[in-house]
Design goal:
alpha/beta, 9 helices, 12% strand
Length: 289
């Protein structure tokens, strides 16, 4: 898991999925401070140095920050890399499970800071048309109080902020990361005070939810363009159109139960593309405390 602070909850969580993996595995998280969708890559598509270093440090990639390859592929390429870059843990990538996968599974989690930036750009309390049935007006006690703005304006703002992320995903995909996922923006808190306390910004829940959903629409389109998998966890973490309180942690991040749902969905998707040995539907079982 690599990206913003929403990755942290995944770190060191252990999972078992004998239907798909021969051994239990531990999720690793790389919180890339200061990285957002807007600066995830430069104009040439080179991944942000902090992200690149995180992939290298966690042995998801080998090479240099400006030239990355999935670590499993690189094992057969260069003896020096095998001996000195991967070191004592190189055998981790020789397990039957990883041999089947072919390359590391990398999930990008990003967008919370970008959503806040778009909210701050729009007029306070405004509204815009959103073609997404998952937005439930009846879930909010207060409707929009500001002006109505063109939907295209919002989508253009989001497209501009996510263009560098799209370039980065294309770069990683072309480098050989076969199991690259982009995680959806999670449902924001409904209570204004919680959002203000954590994000140091003021916005209406109505607008927060529309912007979050608009980001996810864009994320889905980016994944389709770049050949990347979209991990959409919106429905799994909402109830009645808003964040299910069972998964809320601090008003900005989700908890371990939500992380378990993400990993379960991830393994199911892998199982649909990389058949497990027994041919049964995989289920992830969390072993965290």
């Amino acid at each position: 898991m690599v990206g913003d602070s929403n990755t942290v909850v995944f770190n060191n969580l252990a999972f078992a999925c004998p239907e798909f993996f021969s051994e239990p595995f531990v999720a690793r998280a790389a919180f890339c401070r200061g990285v957002s969708a807007q600066n995830f890559a430069d104009d040439a598509g080179a991944v942000h140095p902090v992200v690149a270093e995180a992939l290298l440090a966690h042995l998801a990639a080998v090479g240099t920050p400006s030239s990355l390859w999935p670590s499993r592929r690189a094992l057969a390429l260069d003896a020096y890399e095998r001996t000195h870059r991967l070191g004592a843990v190189r055998d981790r990538y020789r397990t039957p499970a990883n041999d089947r996968l072919g390359s590391p599974v990398v999930v990008v989690m990003i967008g919370a800071a970008d959503a806040k930036a778009v909210l701050e750009t729009l007029p306070a309390g405004c509204d815009f048309a959103l073609d997404d049935e998952r937005f439930r007006p009846e879930a909010f006690t207060e409707g929009p109080v500001g002006p109505y703005v063109p939907a295209q304006l919002v989508h253009d703002l989001i497209a501009a902020r996510t263009a560098p992320l799209s370039r980065a995903l294309g770069t990683l995909h072309d480098a050989g990361f076969e199991h690259l996922y982009l995680h959806s923006v999670h449902p924001p808190p409904v209570e204004d005070r919680k959002y203000t306390r954590v994000r140091d910004g003021c916005s209406q829940a109505w607008l927060r939810y529309k912007v979050a959903l608009a980001f996810n629409l864009r994320f889905r389109a980016v994944c389709a363009e770049r050949g990347v998998r979209f991990l959409d966890m919106w429905d799994a973490t909402t109830s009645g159109g808003v964040l299910d309180p069972r998964f809320e942690y601090d008003g900005d991040h989700l908890n371990r139960e939500a992380a378990h749902l993400t990993v379960t969905a991830l393994i199911r998707d892998l199982g649909s593309r990389v058949p497990p040995p027994k041919g049964s539907a995989p289920e992830a079982r969390s072993r965290h405390g």
